[in-house]
Amino acid sequence: GLGDVYKRQGVFKGFIYDNYRARIERKESTGNAFRGFMSSLSQPRYLSLPSIFPSNMIISSGDASLDELISDINRGVLIVGVQGAHASNPETGEVSAVATPAWVIENGDLKGLSPGLMINMNIYEALKEIEALSKETKQQYNLISPWVRFRSVRFISKS
Predict the structure, then answer these.
(1) Span 43-88, pLDDT tens digits
(2) Are the CB atoms for 62 and 102 separated by under 8 Å?
(3) Other Cβ atoms closer than 10 A to 118
(4) Cβ contacts of 41 within 8 Å, gap of 6 or more
(5) I want to staple 85 with a disulfide (CB 3.0 to 4.6 A). Which of 50, 55, 97, 131 is the partner?
(6) If residue 123 lies in a helix (H) or strand (E), which one and from where to where?
(7) What are phi and psi of 45, to 5 degrees?
């Protein structure tokens, strides 16, 4: 199925479906649809099409503080947010998005902002590169997650 994966405590339980995709796949809807995630403020949400979307997603936190995760990095980037991730391909996992703000890390210290930085990665491959999770969590929309440190991620930069 093309529905998103549904897991509980890291164990695959099935796929989530909205009514439309469930009919196509000859499955029962799990009631996982959301409308208007990226609609403009001037456009009412009901004018946008609903799509498959988890209602709540919580990723368990790790043992290290964010400062401890950063202190172990010789050369890297702390990405606080991204723009354009909604254009990613959920079937192939390809992501190309602007990292903003993104802070340069050198020898465990934040050195300043890195303007014009883009992430170019496959999210399914990146999941294999997770090194550590912070004990602090942050919430963005329906996702509550810790900070994640990856061994390697591809970037494109102006400089």
Answers:
(1) 676 777 788 878 788 888 999 999 999 999 999 999 998 888 777 8
(2) no
(3) 19
(4) none
(5) 97
(6) helix 123-126
(7) -60, -35
For residues 10 and 103, give the distance between their C-alpha atoms in angstroms, rounded to a whole number. 30
Instruction: Give the C-alpha separation, 119 to 90, whole Å.
Output: 16
- Calpha distance 79→159 (Å, rounded): 17
What phi and psi values does residue 50 have, to the nearest 5 degrees? -75, 155
Split at pLDDT 50, 70, 90, the class of 1 is very low
Q: How far apart are the first and last CA of the chain?
A: 42
> Are the CB atoms for 30 and 21 separated by under 8 Å?
no
3-class DSSP state for residue 87? helix
| Residue 87, token pair as written in the block | 């254009």
Question: What is the rounded CA–CA span in Å between residue 81 and residue 114?
Answer: 13
- The b/e string for 94-108 (b: 16+ C-beta within 10 A; e otherwise) is ebbbbbbebbbbeee
Report yes or no: 159 and 116 within 8 Å, Cβ to Cβ: yes
Long-range contacts of 32-35 (CB under 8 A, 24+ apart): 32/3, 32/4
